[in-house]
Write a structure and sequence with these properties.
11 strands; Umud Fragment, subunit A; 5 helices; 7-stranded antiparallel sheet; elongated; 195 residues; alpha+beta
């Protein structure tokens, strides 16, 4: 009788351990899949600041497509992109993983001050000029109905976008820290585009 009781309890313990191991395996696989999806396919993000008004409001939530970054696809004119503003450093695989929103959630860190959401104005080879309170790309004035107000910025200098870089600006031109200040954005620093 004691043998049956011991054997019965052992079977229950074994079943509990098997069930627990299935749960642990399921959670581990789910975590890895979520990490891969957020790192390479699609990622949620939040607008921080007013530089993209009126198109995007402060604290607005949106999704960005990551495969443009994953496959080094040059974004199109007018695309809204998320960039890493630290253009003076090389991005590494470690950056790709640690920039994942999951890690920011777990560590309670907010790196929003280094990630900017901007609009693509210039692509490799383009010459940009800022005169008469307008942007000129390759000699033609851009039609920009998305701007919040007339841009006050002008410059005597023209800018030619180098290979593998883009030039970005915020829609709220008078209150935007963008390529006019931080410089050309390497394609490796374009983390994705707005869905």
């Amino acid at each position: 009788m004691r043998y049956r009781t011991f054997f019965g309890r052992s079977c229950v313990v074994i079943r509990i351990l098997q069930e627990a191991s299935r749960w642990v395996l399921s959670l581990a696989v789910s975590f890895v899949l979520a990490l891969l999806i957020c790192t390479y396919i699609i990622q949620p993000t939040k607008v921080s600041g007013h530089s993209m008004e009126p198109t995007l409001a402060n604290s607005e939530r949106l999704f960005i497509l990551k495969w443009t970054h994953t496959f080094s696809i040059t974004p199109n004119y007018g695309d809204i992109v998320v960039i890493d503003s630290r253009v003076d450093r090389v991005r590494t695989f470690k950056d790709e993983l640690l920039d994942n929103p999951f890690f920011n959630f777990v560590t309670h860190q907010s790196d929003q001050e280094i990630f900017y959401i901007k609009r693509v104005i210039g692509k490799p080879g383009d010459t940009l000029e800022f005169k008469n309170h307008h942007v000129y790309r390759n000699g033609e004035e851009l039609n920009e109905p998305y701007l919040k107000e007339t841009m006050l910025y002008t410059s005597e200098q023209s800018y030619t976008v180098p290979e593998d870089h883009i030039f970005v600006m915020g829609d709220n031109r008078n209150h935007s820290k963008d390529s006019r200040e931080i410089g050309f954005i390497p394609l490796s620093h374009v983390l994705g585009k707005k869905l």
